[in-house]
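Lab notebook, bench 4. We co-purified these components, and the gel suggests they stay together. Before we commit to crystallization screens, I want a quick structural picture of the whole thing.
Request: model the full complex, all chains together.
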Amino acid sequence: MSRDEPLVLGIETSCDETGVGIVRGHTLLADAVASSVDEHARFGGVVPEVASRAHLEAMVPTIERACETAGVALTDLDAISVTNGPGLAGALLVGVAAAKALALGLGKPLYGVNHLASHVAVDQLEHGALPEPCVAMLVSGGHSSLLRVTDVTGVGDGTPEGAGVVSMGATIDDAAGEAFDKVARVLGLPFPGGPHIDKAAREGSQVAIDFPRGLTSRRDLERHRFDYSFSGLKTAVARWVEARERSGEPVPVADVAASFQEAVCDVLVRKALDAASSEGIEDLLIGGGVAANSRLRYLAEERAASLGIRVRVPRPGLCTDNGAMVAALGAEMVARDRVPSSLDLPADSSLPVTDVLAG
Ligand code: KG4
Ligand code: ZN
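Here is the predicted assembly.
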């Protein structure tokens, strides 16, 4: 096997996307994704049991599709990697079982990797070797985290504070994408709401309504400098819309969408740049489904430039959950000579971010 350019297949099933990606080093060869999002739409959120069953049905065809696109046979692979957490327990199990079966059947090394670190590693497929150290802001339907990444494979100096991937802050209630989805529902927009709010906001005014910025008061900053909170904002939007409806006035959907989006993006960017500045780090990486948001990208780039901080955002298809990100981190494990996971590695729905590679 080539250590610099290993051929790795990655499997991702932590939420509602069955992702199978194949990479050779930093080169993306295939990124097959089967999403069960349509099956969850009528519930307004992901239903774990529906997701698990969909993964089971999609797994083999998605692996076949990835191999076909990449033009490789399973026997050509150097290693298999799989998300072993965090995520929905039943959904993770399907991917982990499939990866173990492949690794055992093919006699290839297996790497059980952390979903969050995979969101960071994926950027290598688009922009080349990761800037380390960097601060990563991961914002999706399931997570809102600020990470300090000194080694994306997780190897640090042996102390909890000195781990390769460390959490600097996270949401204390809803994830950013969850807030987009819930506010979209209040506005009568389809699920998942993020892209619809993004679109509606283009016709509205960001300053029409002054919605709250969570955890930004001086008192909150003392305890939660790099943490997020979106539940108060979500409630504020719902109350505002209800009051409008009660008074019989039409709801200005575009203005509500733009003002809500501004409140989320303002806080996300402000805290991410504060995190980078506080560590003297000059690179900010943004990942997760919400990274597709046009206002978030704009604000991040505009404000970072004035601080001399560089921003890297993978293209939208690589920001949402996919198998290529897991393959990318797996390839990095091989390239950096990390010890493969054991074949009895567990799926862990609440895997800490510092546990990048399963033992
Ligand atoms: O990473 P992802 O595909 O799945 C996980 O949740 O892990 O992220 C999906 C989330 C959804 O909440 C969706 O509404 C949000 O990302 N999203 C967006 C945009 N595109 C997707 N949020 C804001 N603006 C967007 N353009
Ligand atoms: Zn994710």
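The mean pLDDT is 95. Worth comparing against the SEC data before the next meeting. The first helix runs from residue 37 to 40.
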